[in-house]
Amino acid sequence: MEKIRNNGDGAEYVVRAAIHADAAVIAHHRAAMFRDMGLIPDDEVPAHETASRAYLAMALPSGEYLGWVVEVSGEVVAGGGVLVRRMLPRPGWPQGGEEAYVLNMYTEPAHRRRGLARALMETILAWCRARLITRVSLHASDDGRPLYESLGFLPTNEMRLEGVP
What we know:
Layout: E1 2-5, E2 12-17, H1 23-36, H2 45-62, E3 66-72, E4 75-87, E5 97-107, H3 116-130, E6 135-138, H4 145-150
Parallel strand pairs: 5-6
Antiparallel strand pairs: 1-2, 2-3, 3-4, 4-5
Helix pairs in contact: 1-2
């Protein structure tokens, strides 16, 4: 656990690994993240939250989803997670290895601008270094982009096809 002291109000935030019991709050954060980004309307939030909670209830205990949360006074107010996938050998990495995909980065509005997202990302990146994961990717919101750029993330040439014809 890592402690973060807020300079403004003296609150003590703690970063810790997510556990099975955090599935509901992580699902809530995921749905709120999509809502705040304008990707889903308010009336779709409950369905996204329910489906995410069902997935996380399975993926947290199995290790398929690895997460970290930030608590203050016992309340989870921020979080982020990682999915790890094996990579084939590629230019620059003939041995292949693993890639971490960061997702679900979210901070409750009342706790933003206190360094919580940075502390989460630093925790995630330290975990990646310890596991010898050298490739980390994510999709950045407009609000999150400056943080990720400050940590060294660069835009890529990724493309996507949804609803495969």
